[in-house]
Amino acid sequence: MSKTLIAYGTRYGATAEVAQEIATILREIYNLEVDLVDLSTSKIKDFCLYNNIVVGSGIKMGRWTSKARRLLQQFRKKILWEKN
Length: 84
What we know:
84 residues, alpha/beta, 5 strands, globular
């Protein structure tokens, strides 16, 4: 079974609602195993555990939340390496 990570940063909760809806659709319609992670309370240790990765964030003044930005910066090299 394909495993999907949905990691999100939210300021006021709207991004969490969208992430939950995406997770529900992937589980119920596409029968995917989904881990839903709120970046304000949890950390991702290893992207390699997942076949699919979705990162979402609230946007304020054109900027993502700091937790979502840091997650992508931390694993940027790993993501690019695995892609090739």
